[in-house]
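Kindly inspect the following:
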Amino acid sequence: QVRPPEIRIPTAAERAWRLRAAGRVLRPIILPALFTGLRKMAIMHLTAEDLTARPGRIRAQDEKGRKTVWIPVVPTLATTLSALRVKEGPLFRWEDGQPMHRFPWKRWVKARTTAGLPWLRFHDLRHTVGELLAEEGVPLRLIQEFLGHSSSRVTERYTKPREAAMDEVARTLDRTYRAQNRRIRQRRPPR
């Protein structure tokens, strides 16, 4: 297994390639990770009843399985999950309709290799959610709640700025200093 020295978040293009390579069985498992930030096993334990218990929300177990969390469902995810046509019991199934009792590792490895992302771990999708929300300016407290973290310290590990965001910070400083220098030059020095 190839692993990066630190967590690497897939780009938008890499996520699209990943989804195309995923196939009919794996794609519906990946989308909840990208739209909810749920962990792999929380996703694998989802049932049809978890989708219908409260309209507009998915019922799932928190990271430790100690409490129930209700996560908003956006239309893209709702469409994907309802297309599974599972009326009761485990949500994710094999092609023959049998329930999936474990994560399809072989398909995951094949799909990430096909997509050119051999370093990608499923948990990296959870980090993707945290980072994208942070980049969009969602307050840390809301990201913490959405991901079900017990403290903001944990959430901070999921919200490291990307290189492009850091470049924009540097450009913002450059624009600020240039504007300040222009104003200073326009003023006359005191006599």
